[in-house]
User: Which sequence fits this backbone?
């Protein structure tokens, strides 16, 4: 999907992972993207359409468990930690490092959303490793 | 995208367009889907990532202009009219009648979002015509 619609055209050049994590524009789009993938994963589990927003507490906890927390400024609240996760997830999609389908698969595995988001962030970090 | 991830597996059988328009489960997922396509269209226009929610007033007006309003119960508020648009848009995506890319293209055309959503709803109604 990303390749077809050329979303990467509107992405500026980021110099570091931290720059991605703290980008507010990316976090804004990421919030919407994450809710969509999450809702679709949930719909598949429940076998009926379901719209749901991801709790910020879950994203902040996944940032902590994945080890990304240490890349963020010390005095940063839970909301900003959630933003960092959202920014990174949509960045990976736009950069074609983590396809929509792969993201959906990881979020659909297991029953604990915090575990699933932790795994997703770790996998993204691994895949982006060489590029940022 | 829809074909690959087999979203249609969790869709029940709908007997009429009105049944789709009034389905609350579809509206829930549709809300999230519409915000995502809208945000991506906006990001392409602005040439930077942007997350934005579609105003319910815009969706309700598009329902009116597209002629779908007459398929809904007379005493229905603006919120429910917006829900109807969201339900139909995501239904068309799941049914593969309107791909994500086509939807993005229509929403990206022109500068008036009400016009764009009106055109989208009319095109969906046309494409679904034979199936519902």
Assistant:
């Amino acid at each position: 999907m990303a390749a077809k619609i050329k979303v990467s055209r509107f992405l500026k050049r980021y110099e570091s992972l931290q720059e991605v994590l703290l980008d507010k524009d990316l976090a804004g789009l990421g919030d919407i993207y994450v809710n969509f993938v999450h809702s679709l994963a949930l719909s598949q589990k429940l076998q009926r359409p379901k719209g749901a927003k991801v709790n910020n507490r879950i994203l902040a906890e996944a940032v902590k468990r994945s080890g990304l927390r240490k890349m963020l400024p010390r005095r940063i609240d839970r909301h900003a930690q959630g933003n960092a996760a959202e920014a990174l997830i949509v960045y990976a999609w736009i950069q074609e490092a983590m396809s929509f389908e792969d993201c959906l698969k990881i979020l659909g595995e297991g029953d604990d959303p915090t575990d699933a988001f932790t795994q997703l962030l770790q996998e993204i970090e691994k895949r982006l490793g060489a590029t940022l």
